[in-house]
Amino acid sequence: MPMAEKKAAPLGNYGDIEADVKTWEKNWGKWGPDDQKGSLNYVTPEVTLNALKLVKEGKVYNLAVPMQRRSPIFPGHDPIIYSTMRDGGDYKAGYARYASPDVGVFLDRAMMETNTYTHCDALNHVWFGDKLYNGYSRDCVRSDGSSKLGIEHMTGVVTRGVLLDVAAYEGVDFLDGNYEITGDILDKVAKWEKVEIKTGDMLCIRTGFGWELMEKEEEKPLPPLPHPGLVLSAAKWATDREVCALFIDCVGMDKAPFPPRPCALACHMWLEWAHGTYGGQAFYFAELSKDKVYTFCFMGAPVRIVGAAGGWIVPLAIK
Known about the structure:
By secondary structure, the protein is of the alpha/beta class. Helices cover 18% and strands 18% of the residues. The longest helix is centred in the middle third of the chain and has 11 residues, at 183-193.
């Protein structure tokens, strides 16, 4: 199947952010010294009401990948563990969980990291030095569930969603592993689709390099690194437009392996640490792409695990 080769797109006006992380602009304090919601503050009641007006047909798209052992996971993360606790065999063997022997219950469980599967990162997911977003101390991250900036602060979101279909723009099924998504590329895709990013939008970026690729390869694992992803100019492009979150279909948001400058997970750092903008990975945009749906009403909420570094989410797009 066709793939897009690496584009040597210039950084445009974004080259300055390759400098030392300590020199980065930050929006800490924008919503007050105690803010823990970050860019969710952009989603005002007016933004939500305008998003609901986008629904014309009532067609619903599920943007989550299927949760199973073979779900795509970023290299180095623990695999998903799925197991059965009670099934028909237990009852056939004479074990009854409830008082009535004729009543059976199928019970199973799934265990996985909160920053794997289709998920949204919390604003405590990454930090630099001893500071988290908005100047919170690194000591606020604790293993007892009392961490600041946990995913519970991203409550339900209803806003305008915008899909920037980079793979379709390049005329390919999925991007090559060496492909770098720059701010210039996002600008070109937006103009190609004739869409404008507005304050509070949910920005969705399609590469095809995720569950969509696994489906085409009959669910074989994703190829080893390199994987396509964002570079810093794309992250700045998003924050300049005041999006409430940036979701991508890759298992990693940053181009991998990570460039040496200015730090590891640089796009995570720019979005989540410096600007309080939520990021998420392992989404599924194939059906939106097929129908050429580039703007829609987005609805979704992560599992509200108090203090957690992320939460699994079932996002919906409605047109």
